[in-house]
């Protein structure tokens, strides 16, 4: 596919000759009808499974039999024909009311028949009669916004649509349609002739279009049908077709997708710049321009920053950074004019080693991170324009880099910028992360945290530990940009340990004093903990919006709270404190009953549970006269927390988990507190959409389980989605020491099958293994679950471990 333009145009020409031959054979030239090519076929390019779009115009009498026979023959020959049969008047009326019809007719092409019919239709649908240049632009601009939103609102989707998505073929066509409507030119090159496109922009558009054409051509052949989405099942094969191979640092498919994302990013930026240019220089040309001189080099025109003359950047390259400095420093500036954006793009080559080593420019770049406002906005714009990657080549390496999995929803550069945005949101507002916002107010140098967000994934895709390698890059940056020693050390430490808090919170028992002690030893002091806490929240919520949930919020909050106490060396009796606070929340009439009840509860229940939860379940049990009880202790936007109190029978946990599965509720965390009176108290943090009616039904179902006399193990079919089937994991099972000598910690990493938890608990039940606690983690397509287990009140011996291992390996489908 070295000459894709010739390939798609030759294909269109061959299909056209076939259609014209059929036209002759059906004797349609004998009638007053006209054959017109529209859509991509009208432009003269055709992909393997693209629709062959035709319009048949007729005057008064339509030869219906001949036309029907023609269309049928085309279908019989395997052509995907999209056709319309109309009079000129019908075409004009439809075009006036439907923008897509008007666009199709604008790039239509006469093929055969009565030429006058075509001329009449074409003339009556031009901008003198309908959809003037300004009206067409406004409608098309809104259409593009709607199209982008429908395709996910970003060019960096895991399975991008290369036709309709941002930076796709439609964005290139959009530029041509809008400008052609105004300038009345028939080709993209005509826009160069009239001065709308610069020659280099024309070349970029052509190169970008040909790259998309190649991918789309191969995609159609692989799929065996019309397909414009880069689905996971095709990405690896496409990478092979285009010569991308695996190496020690990254997969071939990741290189292929990075190449595509970079192309899409450039086309998206070019699309927006040219449409903004069209709006400013043509649609707004009649408006008064309110110009204010900012410096000798910059003006503010109608609240948009512009350069004062075309040679600003060539005469003083440092002005390339001043653009963003002025934008950030001046609240009256709402954006950058397209003229300046164009000149920035044309002068990126001026950012060389001399430019990068300039101490004054380093101070200005650092100033972007230190400013209170628009940190994310400036860096996002700098990245889109290519300035950020040119100034910091280490960042340029991660632009467009994807990770071939279902966990990382964004390219590394986009994720990095989203983390920065989240950090800024935490500092400026308490709406989403109230506790983190309060912690952030005590951070004296927020710019260090901004830099940590910027550098935390800077070494992705190099092989090795990206946190360790990133810490080296952060240290190098700190030295080069003359950060104070303490700030530089903090920055490097945050990058090195940016995953630590997440791992400890989600995979270890944070009610275990030894876990907290070990974590605190790494954190060292409150300053490091505060920074790491905010960074961790920003990182998790910036990986995939669906990853952040109330469970992770509560885990991190709890870990932060316990570590703060450890660092302060507070010798606090948490059990006594929790009991006192919970008792204070209860009606006095329940005090005596509840105090008696608590004598049967293990201390770790009070150590781990919030006083509000303790009070709610205790009051519910007391009011139910110590009979089996179910209590919703907390409600969240994304789920709920529930406690149940019942007879300590083998199989109870397994059946409760089965009820949750039937209600399509995910268990994120579970704890089992066996009492000394033959009862058990189970706690679950659940995720899933729920309303009052569902919770009522769920509560009733769990209550029925509590009243059962005996439990039979249940099997549940393992289910995976289309995407997950492509990422089946080789299961990893490991056993290690538990929280005491009588426990074993069991961790399983495997594909996230629906029904997995029910089946694991079934296996453990059948092996007479007791579950004391569980943490259920999902990371994209991957499940990472941890259980604390015992067998006959002892840690699992080697034989039992082998039986667990064998049963679970038998359960999982072969990869």
Structural class based on helices, strands and sheet pairing: alpha+beta
**Low-confidence spans: pLDDT under 50, at least 5 residues?**
none
Most strands sheet: 8 strands, antiparallel
Report the CATH superfamily of the largest domain: ACT domain
The level 1 CATH classification of the largest domain is: Alpha Beta
Would you give an account of this structure?
By secondary structure, this protein is an alpha+beta fold. The chain folds into four domains: about 5-125, Beta Polymerase, domain 2; about 135-285, Four Helix Bundle (Hemerythrin (Met), subunit A) (Up-down Bundle); about 390-565, no CATH class; about 590-810, Alpha-Beta Plaits, CATH 3.30.70. It is built from 38 helices and 16 strands. The strands form three sheets. An eight-stranded antiparallel β-sheet has the order 9-10-12-11-15-16-14-13. A four-stranded mixed β-sheet has the order 3-2-1-4, sandwiched between helices. Strands 5-6-7-8 form a four-stranded mixed β-sheet. Helix 24 packs antiparallel against helix 25 and helix 30 (about 575-585) crosses helix 33 (about 610-625). The chain starts with a helix and ends with a helix.
């Amino acid at each position: 596919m070295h000459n894709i333009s010739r390939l798609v145009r030759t294909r269109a020409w061959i299909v056209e000759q076939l259609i014209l031959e059929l036209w002759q054979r059906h004797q349609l030239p004998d009638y007053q009808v006209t054959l017109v090519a529209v859509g991509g076929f009208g432009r003269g390019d055709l992909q393997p499974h693209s629709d062959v779009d035709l319009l048949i115009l007729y005057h008064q009498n339509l030869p219906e039999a001949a036309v029907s026979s023609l269309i049928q023959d085309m279908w019989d020959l395997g052509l995907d024909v999209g056709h319309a049969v109309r009079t000129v008047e019908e075409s004009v009326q439809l075009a006036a009311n439907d923008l897509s019809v008007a666009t199709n007719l604008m790039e239509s092409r006469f093929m055969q028949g009565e030429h006058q019919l075509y001329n009449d239709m074409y003339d009556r649908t031009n901008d003198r009669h309908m959809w003037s240049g300004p009206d067409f632009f406004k409608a098309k601009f809104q259409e593009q916004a709607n199209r982008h939103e429908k395709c996910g609102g970003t060019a960096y989707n895991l399975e991008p649509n290369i036709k309709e998505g941002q930076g796709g073929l439609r964005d290139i066509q959009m530029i041509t349609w809008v400008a052609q409507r105004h300038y009345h030119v028939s080709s993209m090159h005509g826009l160069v002739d009239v001065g709308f496109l610069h020659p280099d922009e024309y070349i970029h558009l052509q190169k970008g279009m040909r790259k998309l054409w190649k991918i789309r051509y191969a995609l159609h052949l692989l799929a065996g049908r019309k397909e414009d989405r880069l689905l996971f099942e095709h990405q690896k094969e496409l990478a092979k077709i285009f010569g991308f191979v695996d190496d020690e640092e990254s997969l071939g498919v990741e290189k292929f997708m990075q190449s595509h994302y970079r192309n899409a990013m450039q086309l998206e930026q070019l699309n927006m710049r040219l449409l903004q240019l069209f709006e400013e220089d043509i649609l707004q040309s009649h408006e008064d321009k309110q110009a204010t001189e900012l410096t000798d080099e910059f003006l503010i025109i109608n609240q948009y920053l512009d350069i004062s003359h075309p040679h600003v950047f060539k005469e003083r390259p440092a002005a390339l950074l001043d653009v963003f400095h002025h934008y950030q420093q001046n609240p009256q500036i709402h954006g950058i004019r397209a003229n300046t954006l164009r000149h920035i793009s044309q002068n990126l080559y001026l950012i060389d080693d001399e430019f990068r080593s300039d101490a004054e420019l380093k101070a200005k770049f650092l100033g972007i991170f230190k400013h209170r406002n628009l940190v994310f906005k400036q860096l996002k714009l700098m990245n889109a324009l290519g300035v950020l990657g040119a100034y910091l080549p280490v960042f340029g390496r991660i632009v467009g880099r994807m990770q071939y999995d279902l966990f990382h929803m964004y390219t590394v550069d986009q994720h990095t910028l989203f983390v920065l945005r989240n950090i800024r949101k935490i500092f400026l507002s308490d709406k989403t992360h109230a506790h983190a916002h309060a912690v952030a107010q005590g951070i004296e140098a927020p710019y260090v945290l901004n830099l940590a967000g910027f550098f935390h994934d800077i070494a992705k895709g190099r092989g090795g530990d990206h946190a360790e390698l990133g810490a080296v890059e952060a240290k190098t940056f700190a030295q080069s940009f003359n950060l104070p020693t303490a700030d530089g050390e903090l920055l490097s430490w945050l990058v090195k340990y940016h995953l630590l808090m997440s791992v400890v919170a989600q995979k270890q028992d944070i009610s275990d004093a030894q876990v907290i002690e070990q974590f605190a030893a790494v954190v060292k002091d409150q300053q490091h903990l505060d920074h790491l806490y905010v960074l961790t929240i920003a990182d998790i919520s910036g990986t995939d919006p669906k990853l952040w949930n109330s469970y992770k919020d509560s885990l991190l909050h709890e870990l932060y709270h316990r570590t703060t106490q450890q660092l302060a060396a507070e010798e606090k009796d948490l059990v006594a404190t929790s009991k006192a606070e919970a008792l204070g929340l209860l009606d006095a009439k329940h005090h005596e009953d509840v105090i008696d009840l608590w004598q049967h509860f293990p201390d770790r229940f009070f150590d781990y549970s919030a006083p509000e939860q303790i009070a709610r379940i205790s009051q519910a049990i007391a009011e139910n006269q110590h009979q089996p009880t179910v209590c919703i202790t907390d409600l969240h936007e994304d789920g709920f927390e529930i406690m149940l109190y019942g007879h300590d029978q083998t199989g109870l946990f397994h059946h409760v988990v089965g009820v949750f599965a039937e209600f399509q509720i995910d268990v994120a965390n579970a704890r089992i507190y066996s009492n000394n009176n033959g009862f058990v108290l189970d706690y679950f943090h659940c995720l899933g959409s729920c309303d009052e009616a569902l919770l009522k039904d769920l509560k009733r179902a769990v209550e029925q389980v509590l009243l059962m006399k005996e439990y039979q193990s249940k099997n549940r079919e393992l289910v995976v989605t289309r995407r997950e089937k492509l990422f089946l994991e080789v299961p990893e099972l490991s056993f290690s020491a538990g929280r005491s000598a009588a426990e074993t910690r069991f961790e399983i990493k495997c594909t996230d099958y629906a029904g997995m938890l029910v089946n694991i608990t079934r296996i453990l039940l059948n092996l007479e293994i007791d579950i004391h606690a569980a943490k259920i983690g999902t990371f994209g397509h991957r499940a990472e679950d941890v259980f604390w287990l015992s067998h006959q009140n002892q840690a699992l011996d080697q034989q039992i471990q082998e039986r667990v291992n064998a049963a679970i390996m038998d359960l999982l489908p072969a990869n």
